[in-house]
Fold:
Amino acid sequence: MLQARLGCSPTELRQLRPFQHADDRLLQALAGQVTPQWAPRGTRIIALGSDDEATYFLLEGTVRLVATDSAEATLSAKDPAARRPLSHLRPRRHDVISDTTVRYLRIDNRLLAGLAATFAEPLDRMPATGDAPAPPVSTLEAEFAAEIRAALDKDLLTLPSLPDIAVRVGRTVLDEKSNARRVAAVVQTDPVIAAKLVRAANSAFFGGGRRIESLAGAVTQLGFQLTHKLVLSFALREIFSAPSRAAEERMRELWRHTTQVSALCQTIATSDRRFDPQQALLAGLVHDIGSVAVVSHLAHRAPHLEPAVADRVVGQLRGDIGGAILRKWRFPEELVTCATEGECWLRDSGADPDLCDVVIVAQLLSFLGSAQQLDGLPNLSEVPAFGKLRLGGAVEDGASGGDAGSAFIDQRRDQISHTASLLVS
Structure:
């Protein structure tokens, strides 16, 4: 029996999420060059902090993932999450230890990139217009995914910079000698953000009952930390600028989705008081920042790429790219996790919810009644994050899943709309 299970077939490879749309020839070649390994119980398969250029998958058995703070999670090969790579962020964020005898796969990233390039059509042979036949969709996906991932691994991928106004306000806020006037002096160099900050200070959500006329008064009303987060939130809009006409519609859709999820994150946090509403707002704003970078890259590299192909490439890479961007910006790890794991719908990080759980639920709430909801997304009642959050009356009254989600949105529609309008105005 063991001998019969030594190899790894193309069919088995295709069950793994990164290879679901890969070219058949690539999977056939890969299956011939990689061999699954067996490990007895108690074997450390991946070491915390390691940085080897490889991707690991669990094929059979159960493993424990032990984080830096000793928090543990268990993953079975039967879990949907096992279709994703094990502890794929580098440096590795977990010790991965076999809890039973396990069968796992280790794939050298350079081997995968080489195979993808071998079986992909050269980019200069892609037809821009006309009726010439295009390369297979799976071939293009593999080509672009391998190209972008290799550039990221070699630190050659151009990642967006944190907007200058956000950097300067952050430095001023951290300066012990600063006061409201000094912070306001920095903010007023961007008239659009200054106007939004005054508007926020006078809003029903942030206002204190008296009319604020000056920028310094707005900073005083909001406080330094909230001012910084709001400036950062407003400044992030410029990251969603389209590098070409071909990307304009996609960037507009990304910004619409981002503002809706951000507003929902903040609203969830005001209901579940274990979270800072403004940190939740920021989590929503950066959860899809990786998609922005990939869309921008593809707009330059292949402006005529079919939208469906581009969408699948974005889906494969958004998490890793988003994590790299937020680490470059030196954001806290909890926000990095929101970018890397915000679409791991069945993610379960433990008994207590974290900010990524808020982002997951906010995204699923934003998709209620949409085409995306019908396209394979789980019901809210199936999502561990949903069961951990305190969403108020709708859930407490016994509603479940989509009904509870719809009730939550109905009860807080004004707050959600107010926050979203503040971001897009």
The two ends are 64 Å apart (CA to CA).
